[in-house]
What we know:
Oligomer: single chain
Keywords: Phosphoprotein
Number of strands: 5
Distance between the termini: 18 Å
Mean pLDDT: 78
GO biological process, one term: phosphorelay signal transduction system
Low-confidence stretches: 123-128
Domain Response regulatory: 1-122
Protein name: Response regulator
Organism: Rapidithrix thailandica
Number of helices: 5
Amino acid sequence: MRTLYYIQAEKAGMSYLKTSLKGEYEIISLKDPKECFQSIQYLKDHHQQFPEVIIMDYPMSDMSGLHMVESLYEMLPDTHLILLLPEDNEELLFEIIKLGIMDYILKDKGYTRALSSLIAGKRLQVSI
């Protein structure tokens, strides 16, 4: 089964994701960037498959989401990275676009459905 990491500041979207992606992804909830990098290092050291999708909340406790995305792009070029952004921060959105990050979702009331759709789009790319 494919793996999805969800690095989250809050638990709100987790149950919806587990329901909508049931049977397609093993969803692993991580509390912060440090735990994510430790897990990736473990996978690397034990020659195991990296997660197919990583979803990250912004902001995060230890490291900014932008810095983490840049680091993960370098480490895992084949992993689909998705950044969850607060809906009221236009400056941050501009920085995201400047960096070339195309997979982001604004965290409004319907963000969990948008997130599932974005992941579904990745599944379509993989199956072609």
